[in-house]
Design a protein that fits this description.
The protein is built from 11 helices and no strands. It is mainly α and about 260 residues long. Helix 4 crosses helix 5, helix 7 packs across helix 8 and helix 10 crosses helix 11. The radius of gyration is 36 Å and the shape is elongated.
Length: about 260
Amino acid sequence: MALRHSLCRVARPAVRIPSIGAYHGIPPLSSNDNAQRSAMNMQAHQMMLSRNFSAAVGMEGVKPTLDVAKEMPREYYEMSNKLIVKLSIAGDEDAVAERLTREVMYVDGLDYEAALAKLKAIDAACNAGKTLNDLPYKAGALTAYVAALASIPLCFHLDTCLWFNEGFVTTEVAEAKDLETWLEVGSWSWTWMEPPLGQISFFLLCLQMARQQMVNVGIKPFGERTRVARVQKVVAAFPQYQSEIVEQYAGVQVGLAAVE
């Protein structure tokens, strides 16, 4: 019995078991490089899966046949419900519209064409008040364009600078020899153009910083708040449909990326 136990305790030679990478042409690594070993094993695993798939199909890749190509959806109305939902959640605007169209079909029991006609009524609700809400921004854009174009002759065109100086500034006109080029005219007119341009620039910079700080603390700017209010009105006007679907569609129509 003692001899048997002693024989069992005889040290056996260590057997080296090759890693999975050895079967795929990946060189062995040192035992202390765990991070690199893990990456190599992952690479070998991916290669093994790729080879198994290729062996299963009998080729490196399977190209679609003509019949498979014919089955591919080419329009949104040909896509499945699951695909439409996934695309709409991802922000695809056409998928959002298609999702609401199918919601109208389901709730009202309409066919596709009748649901599209119903969608036009929802579009009209989305655009209600748009003209009034956009008026401040259009006025601001027009003012900015006019000011940008007018600033050039007011700085560098001699006749315009003389007219503006006579009507609004009344400072001394520089000598004729100092107004021979447009750069000399700009140097003279800059004595009164610099204060308003500098102050307006600083004023706009402060407004931009204030707006960004409002966004940082979660306060929606005026434009975004008006668009959110329009979306909420649309959702309230069509309570028979799923609110999330209507909300997403209205948000796209009024220019919101997402409604919180």
